[in-house]
Amino acid sequence: MIQxxxxxxxxxxxxxxxxxxxxxxxxWQGLFSGTPTGGISVLTxxxxxxxxxxxxxxxxxxxxxxTTQIKFSRDGxxxxxxxxxxxxxxxxxxxxxxxxxxxxxxxxxxxxR
Length: 113
Description:
Layout: E1 15-16, E2 19-20, H1 22-33, E3 41-43, E4 50-53, E5 58-63, E6 67-73, E7 80-81, E8 87-91, E9 96-101, E10 107-112
Antiparallel strand pairs: 1-2, 3-10, 4-9, 5-8, 5-10, 6-7, 6-9
């Protein structure tokens, strides 16, 4: 079973009797060791052009289909053509990938940090 790194509940105190609480300690340990924050998700690709907005930081893998263009935006106003039609694209929370395809949609997978 894969263990995911989760931030402690808001009610969890940072310290208990002057010692870091175990939930916070495990969370920080997971951050520094690279423990993933969630599982991999296969995305349902809609009609072209399909816009994906990242819910959290991670990477989007785009492959297959008849992709003709992939654009990236951090602010939703300025879009940058990546020059690629497949690959792994790092994204932060709120970033957008716009995937344009002609006949068949590509397979898209989200991998959280």
